[in-house]
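Ligand-bound model needed. zinc ion.
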Amino acid sequence: MFPQRLTDGYRAFLGGRFAGEQSRYEMLAETGQRPEIMVIGCVDSRVSPEVIFDAAPGELLVVRNVANLVPPYEPDRDSQHGTSAALEFGVQALRVKHIVVLGHAFCGGIRAFADEQEPLSPGDFIGRWMSQIAPAAANLGPRAPDDDGTYLRRLEFASVELSLQHLMTFPCVRILVERGKLALHGAYFGIASGRLLVRDPDTGRFEPVVDGLAGRSSTIGF
Ligand SMILES: [Zn+2]
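Prediction:
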């Protein structure tokens, strides 16, 4: 049976948001989508880009995968590259102007890699997928024995940084960035606090995006 939660939610959507935005949906159906911003986010159910950025239909092109990773450009024929295909669609077909890699606190994929846990699935897609961040972890050096949790946050930041570097290995991305037609951004969502940090391209540091609005205080930090 189709989940009742979804039937109820759909009914609420139809009478609420869809009713209020039907003309926008009709226009998008007629003219096609033209989002200017692409977001590469995590599958984590707490980090929905459309919710965090209060997006209307047609505004964000979103691709989500485990730990918001962009693999390097690998045009081989033996593998399937879902994220790379979405990237190509966004950049070459829709001509988005911005790509945001959205990391987040308490990322299960990052933690699984850092803790060297058993793969979450017997098929081990996740273990192989997460091994991509090994260079980011190598850059950070070993985790301190008395680490208070900051290591995971630094690894979450570093994996966003690595994905930004991987984006530039795609010829279609690099050319448009160099021409000033496409901008790449790193961001990080704090979940418990609601804080949004954005990577400063000059310093590489992640800073609050809104002055004086550091999100709600939270007893568990981020
Ligand atoms: Zn995650």
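The longest strand covers residues 98-104.
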